[in-house]
Amino acid sequence: MEEEKMELRDINRSSEDKFTKAAKPSSFFERIIQPCIAELVGTMFFVFIGCVSVIENVEAAGRLQPALVHGLAVAVLVACMAEISGSHFNPPFTLAIFLCGGMQLAMVIPYLISQLVGGVLGAAMSKVMTSRENYINATGAAFTILKSDEQIGGAVFAEMAMTCLVTMVVLLGAVNGKSKSPMVPFLVGCTVIVNILAGGDVSGTCLNPARALGPALLAGHWDYHWVYWVGPIGGSLIAVALLRLLLGDEKIRVILK
């Protein structure tokens, strides 16, 4: 009888220890610093791989290579770092996730800074890796498809609509409790591939200001650069409105609860 009591006591103590460990708050490094590092590193490698795929694809026909490279890079990086930072790697994603209650306000600015710095570092890495001739021919993988004001309307709409689509995939798959899915990395990666194949010839399919800023800064190409901020941010806000008003679960929706 005493042995049974001792075993029961040991089990209870073990359970209490596990509970104590689980309830113990994580360190400042893991709560604040590590997620920002993950956002910087993830964005850096995404922009690096994406830029290289464009720079080394100047003479190739079609957009299949950049589409696959960007989409697969997103899928791999999201899968690897989701448990560290949430794997945003995109300022409009961070804005949308915050507005849907998926992150704290205090982390928004650090995330945005980390992503933009990561984008610049990734563009710098691509410049070091590729030949000078190819780099110049591709304008450092900056978005150069817009040549006249007549194209602006379609390009802004394209960036807005396609960013809205991929942001909805992120929000529904990772934030919305009713539709969360472990397949988010695959879903987001596929959406990026589809968007680039569909809209690459209209706007270049940036969908990410961090992806646009790095190459523009390194190559000194700022023509119509604002399109790649206004379109993606506008698209993410539309996605937020759709979730907050119609598609989100009760915690996210602000009306019709």
Automatic annotation (TrEMBL):
GO annotation, cellular component aspect: plasma membrane
GO molecular function list: water channel activity
Location, primary (coarse class): membrane
Domain of life: Eukaryota
Alphabetical UniProt keywords: Membrane, Transmembrane, Transmembrane helix, Transport
Membrane as UniProt keyword: yes
Chain ranges passing through the membrane: 36-55, 67-86, 152-175, 226-247
Membrane topology: Multi-pass membrane protein
Cited Pfam families: MIP (PF00230)
Subcellular localization: Membrane
Protein family membership: Belongs to the MIP/aquaporin (TC 1.A.8) family.
Name of the protein described by the UniProt record: Uncharacterized protein
Highest classification ranks of the organism: Eukaryota, Metazoa, Chordata, Craniata, Vertebrata
